[in-house]
Amino acid sequence: MSRQLLGAALTAALAVTLTGCGSGGSGSSDDALEIWIRQAPESASAKTAVKLAEGFTKASGIKTKVVAIFDDFETKLQQQAAQRRLPDIVINDTAQLGNMNTQGWIREVDKAKVAGGDQLSELAWKAAQGGDGKYYAVPFSAQAFALVVRRDWREKVGMEPPATWDDLTKLAQAFTDKDPDGNGEKDTAGFVIPAGTKRGYASWYASSMIYANGGDFVTAGGGGTFTSTVGDPKTVEAVQYLQDQFCTTKTVNPGAVSNDTTVTHEVFEKGQGGIYLVGPYVLARFVKSVGTDKIEVLPVPKGPSGGPGTLGEGENVYLMAGSDNEAGQQKFAEYAASPDGQRIGMNKDADGAIVRLPVNSQVDMAAERTDPRWKVFQESYDHAVYSPPVPNWAPIRQTSADTINAVWADCSADVKAAMADLHTKLTAELQSQKAS
């Protein structure tokens, strides 16, 4: 049997099995609702998740158990599924919806029966929707990407905030060539980029520039079908722009092609680069580690051929299949999306927010967070682009990252030809997922 057919058979069998068995959480000795979240154990974010669960318990009387896992999150979920012990609730990336649904791990949500569901952003609801038009989660957190910039460096080199991609290049060149930190050495870069292939970071980073230029990886058609558009000139132009930063102007931090976000955060904090295209989840961290007066948040400039646009992401509350406490699952999802739940998750201006941008229209972000830099992320969300709900986005992101990383690492690589080859690969991947 082919690998694809075997995978499909196992997935179908697993889905049937999970529907008839209890989850790990509801079957535990203390009968607590088990909640998994993708965060490092003992981190500030994990502690915020515990506060959210405690708030829910106080409001509902339902006991909870929070499990924070960062490394190999999906692998550990797979192991739990194989043991027929899925948690009751998973708070996970919006981009994981298609994969989790294909595995048979999550159950459908009736949007009309979610208390307070009409208060939630329609864009956030869209990220809880599968390719079949049905909903498989309740929105919890949203985020859009913007530029975190060393303001003190920009002012020292005497430049204005960038309004175009050319402006952005000139700012990056000034940060690289004009000794913005004043130490008399040429030891700074313009861009800091997590350009490695781990977890698809290269394509994850590039996506904001691609969307800002009106490009895309995959576009949705009718009836749950999708088409690769990665060879579109607008997409190619964005990847070429970034290759130019690596290879022509040489404005990217050394070693970027091997780095993930963990390393890149530290590169920015150490003053080795001054422009970081990233989400709002690091803002409080950088305010503390770099200095509030030294950083600013600026929107991603519109590209020369399209836009505006930027990557939209977030987390959903997934109600896992096989739970013995479906009523408790529903109540937790409703609480997490409620104004009270959203405020706890936002954690004001402190580090550890698990709600980056609130999805509930009844929450006034300005009243919860006094830092005006959050407003830039909020405004950027108006033109954010989410990953499409293909059955499995992970191999599309990973395959794209492998190609994009390669053209950034090899300055002799032809970007247009590489993206044409990537188009062929993504078309085959969509066919293998029966989504083309």
UniProtKB/TrEMBL annotation:
Annotated GO MF terms: maltose binding
PANTHER family: MALTOSE-BINDING PERIPLASMIC PROTEIN (PTHR30061), MALTOSE_MALTODEXTRIN-BINDING PERIPLASMIC PROTEIN (PTHR30061:SF50)
One record GO biological process: maltodextrin transmembrane transport
Protein name: Multiple sugar transport system substrate-binding protein
SUPFAM superfamilies named among the record's database cross-references: Periplasmic binding protein-like II (SSF53850)
Cited PROSITE patterns: PROKAR_LIPOPROTEIN
Pfam families named in the record: SBP_bac_1
Biological classification of the source: Bacteria, Bacillati, Actinomycetota, Actinomycetes, Streptosporangiales
Keywords recorded for this protein, A-Z: Signal, Sugar transport, Transport
Transmembrane region(s): none
Listed GO CC annotations: ATP-binding cassette (ABC) transporter complex, substrate-binding subunit-containing
InterPro entries xref list: SBP
Top-rank taxon: Bacteria
Family to which the UniProt record says this protein belongs: Belongs to the bacterial solute-binding protein 1 family.
